[in-house]
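Hello support,

Our group uses your service weekly, and this is the first time we've seen a run hang past the timeout. The protein is SRPBCC domain-containing protein. I'm not sure whether the cause is the sequence or the server load. Input pasted verbatim:
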Amino acid sequence: MAQTNIETNASAGRVLTITRVFGASPVLVFDAFSDPKRMLQWLGPRDYPASYVESDLRVGGKWRACLDSQASGEKLWHGGVYREIVPGKRLAFTFAWDQADGRSGLETLVSINFEGQNGKTLMTFQQSEFDTPEDCDGHREGWNSAFDRLEELLAQE
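Update from on-call engineer: The timeout came from a worker crash unrelated to the input. Re-ran successfully.
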């Protein structure tokens, strides 16, 4: 089973850190985060899988995705801008949900490090800073469900 650690700091529970070990190389795990076709296979929680992903994978390039509720059909659009790309090692991008009025919501920064460990990958994922600890907890649940799906996808490859 994947190991998950949550870190809190002076931001009082508004910084999310998740670590996972995936049974694939850092190059394959990075590719799962950077290739829109592969992202469609795992992005989003089980009950809100992605139905759309586009990506201009370059620093300053934009990404956009839509998660669809399996129960209600609700669509959750979100996106951001790539800030750092080091293939197989690190990925950083902004993240914001679309609001009902079409504007972007709170922008957070997602930073992901991929470290090789004996043929596996230690992924350290951090997203910050949330408005409230409750928002942080909601993202923890969502990302962990998505990472469970990613773990299953990587195990098939």
